[in-house]
Specification:
By secondary structure, the protein is mainly beta. It has helices spanning 156-161, 193-197, 203-206, 434-438; strands at 4-6, 38-40, 54-68, 71-78, 87-90, 94-101, 110-112, 135-141, 146-151, 166-171, 180-189, 208-211, 214-215, 218-222, 226-233, 240-250, 253-264, 269-275, 280-284, 287-288, 292-293, 299-307, 334-341, 345-348, 360-362, 365-373, 379-383, 388-393, 403-404, 406-409, 414-421, 425-431, 442-448. β20 and β21 (292-293) form a beta hairpin. The two termini are 41 Å apart. Bound molecules: CU-O-CU linkage and copper (II) ion (CU). CU-O-CU linkage (C2O) is lined by residues 110, 112, 123, 151, 153, 267, 382, 384, 428, 430, 432. CU-O-CU linkage is lined by residues 110, 112, 123, 151, 153, 267, 382, 384, 428, 430, 432.
C-alpha cells in the first residue's frame, strides 16, 4: 500500500507544462519545416549501443520517494523517475535491457503487448523472478509498431501502484511525421484501496489522474500542428473514457480505419491524432467498473494550448488498411468464464490462480477464445505473447479489423477473439485490474511445440 508521508494541497495557479524532452533545439518546430517531430514524453533512457538497429538500455528498479501535487509517495521507480524511462525503438530493432533489482523484494519486468520469447516475458509459468540485488538481461526483437508498456509481473498490484511502469514505443519509419509525438502515461493517485475491489464505486469521482506524473498539465504547441498522442493507461483499476477525439491506433498499432473516441481499460493503449487549430482540453468522463458510462461532468486531464492562430491542419496520410473484421468461424476452442464479486473474490472458470487447469494447444493452432463475464464488474482481458483479433463484443463485430492484446469484457458480456497460437510457452491470460489478477483472476495457455 502506498504510504503518504506528507499531504498538502497543490499550490493554486498555473498548471505545469509537459516538458519537451528532445527535438533539435528543445522547442517545437514550425509545422512546415522538415524536422523530426518534437518528442514530449517521460525522459528517455540512454542508449548504450551506437548501432542504430539496437536499443540497449539499463533499468534499475529501486525504492524512490516521489511527489505529485504536494503528496509525497513512499514508492518505487525505474531509474529514479515515475513514469520510468520511455524506450523508443523502430520495427526490426533488437532491444536489450539490463535490469537491476535494487528493491528489497523480488521483481520481474513484463513487456506488455510485445511479442517476446517466453523466457523474456517476465511472467508465465514457471516464473523466474529477479531476487533483491539480482540482475537480468532481457533481449528481444520488436516486430510490430505501436505503443506498448512495461511493468513488473510479481506482486503486480503493489509494485505497479508504487510507480514501476514506463512506455515502450516502436516506431514505423514509413508513418507520416506529426509535428509533436506525445507519450502520455496515465495513472491514478490516491487510489483508494477499496476501488480496486468494489465495482460499485465510481472511480471517476474518487481519484485524480496524473499525466506523466503531473496533475492537469499543459501541452503548448504551435497552432496548425498535428500531435500524435500515444496514451497508456497504467492505472491499477481506473478506466479512461475519452470522447470526441480521432483515434488512429489501439494496442497493436494503427487501426484498420480511424474511429472516434475510446475507453482505455487498465493496461490499454490508444493513439490519437490532434489537429490543433485553437486550444482544447482533453477530458475524461465518469465511468464505473460496474457497468461503464456514468452520469457526471467531464473532468480535465490535460490542456492543449495553441500558440498563435491557424486553421486546424489536414489529417496525416496514415496507412489505414481498411480491412473489415474477420468472419467468426463459429466454433469455440477455449471458453473462459470470469466470475466473482468483491466479497467472494475473483475467478476464471471457478478457479483461482495458481490452482488452474491449463489448456494445451499445438504451436501454430488457430484458436477462437470466448471470454464471458458473469460478474458485476467489467474486466479487461489480457493475453501474453500473442496478439488477437476482436471478432465481436456482445455479438457485435467492431467497425473494422481490430488487433489487440487487452480488451474489455462488459458486465454480463461476451467477447470473442481469434488468434494463432504461434509463440511457444506457458503464457498468462488474466484480468488487468491488478487487484483482481493478484487475487487469482488469472490463468495460463500452454502453447506446445
Ligand atoms: Cu500488463 Cu500480465 O500484464
Ligand atoms: Cu477483473
Amino acid at each position: 500500500m502506498i504510504t503518504l508521508l506528507a499531504a498538502c494541497a497543490a499550490p493554486p495557479g498555473e498548471p505545469p507544462p509537459l516538458p519537451v524532452r528532445s527535438g533539435d533545439s528543445g522547442t517545437i518546430a514550425a509545422p512546415s519545416e522538415p524536422r523530426r517531430p518534437a518528442l514530449v514524453s517521460p525522459a528517455a533512457a540512454v542508449d548504450l549501443d551506437p548501432d542504430p538497429d539496437v536499443l540497449h538500455v539499463a533499468l534499475t528498479a529501486a525504492p524512490h520517494a516521489w511527489e505529485v501535487a504536494g503528496i509525497r509517495v513512499d514508492g518505487s521507480a525505474y531509474n529514479g523517475q515515475v513514469p520510468g524511462p520511455t524506450l523508443r525503438a523502430r520495427i526490426g530493432d533488437a532491444v536489450v535491457v539490463d535490469i537491476t533489482n535494487a528493491l528489497p523484494e523480488a521483481t520481474t519486468v513484463h513487456w506488455h503487448g510485445v511479442r517476446v520469447p517466453i523466457a523474456m516475458d517476465g511472467a508465465g509459468w514457471p516464473m523466474e523472478t529477479i531476487p533483491p540485488g539480482g540482475t537480468f538481461q532481457a533481449r528481444f526483437t520488436v516486430d510490430r509498431p505501436g505503443t506498448f508498456w512495461y511493468h513488473p509481473h510479481f506482486d503486480t498490484a503493489h509494485q505497479v501502484d508504487r510507480g514501476l511502469y514506463g512506455a515502450l514505443i516502436v516506431e514505423d519509419p514509413d508513418d507520416p511525421l506529426p509535428d509533436v509525438d506525445l507519450v502520455a502515461v496515465f495513472d491514478t493517485v490516491g487510489e483508494p484501496e477499496a476501488m480496486a475491489h468494489d465495482p460499485h464505486l465510481v472511480d471517476a469521482s474518487l481519484t485524480d489522474w496524473t499525466v506523466n506524473g503531473q496533475l492537469d498539465p499543459v501541452l503548448a504547441v504551435p497552432a496548425g500542428a498535428v500531435v500524435r498522442a500515444r496514451l497508456v493507461n497504467a492505472s491499477n483499476a481506473g478506466y479512461l473514457d475519452l470522447r470526441g477525439d480521432t483515434v488512429i491506433a489501439h494496442d497493436q498499432g494503427l487501426l484498420a480505419a480511424p474511429e472516434e473516441g475510446v475507453v482505455l481499460a487498465p493496461g490499454d493503449r490508444a493513439e490519437l491524432e490532434w489537429r490543433v487549430g485553437g486550444g482544447f482540453t482533453v477530458n475524461r468522463h465518469p465511468y464505473t467498473v460496474a457497468g461503464g458510462v456514468a452520469h457526471g461532468d467531464p473532468v480535465r486531464l490535460l490542456e492543449v494550448r495553441a500558440e498563435g492562430a491557424a486553421d486546424p491542419p489536414a489529417p496525416l496520410p496514415w496507412a489505414f488498411s481498411g480491412a473489415p473484421p474477420s468472419a467468426d468461424p463459429g466454433r469455440t476452442d477455449i471458453r473462459l468464464l470470469f466470475s466473482g464479486s468483491p466479497e467472494l473474490g475473483w475467478e476464471i472458470d471457478g478457479q483461482t490462480f495458481p490452482d488452474v487447469v491449463v489448456p494445451q494447444v499445438a504451436l501454430g493452432q488457430p484458436l477462437v477464445i470466448e471470454v464471458r463475464n458473469a460478474s458485476p464488474a467489467i474486466h479487461p482481458f489480457h493475453l501474453h505473447g500473442h496478439t488477437f483479433e476482436v471478432l465481436s463484443v456482445d455479438g457485435a463485430p467492431p467497425p473494422s479489423q481490430r488487433i489487440e492484446d487487452t480488451v474489455d469484457v462488459p458486465v454480463h458480456g461476451r467477447v470473442r477473439l481469434a488468434l494463432v497460437a504461434d509463440n511457444p510457452g506457458v503464457w498468462m491470460m488474466h484480468c488487468h485490474v491488478l487487484a483482481h489478477a493478484d487475487g487469482g483472476m488469472m490463468t495460463l495457455l500452454d502453447v506446445r511445440e
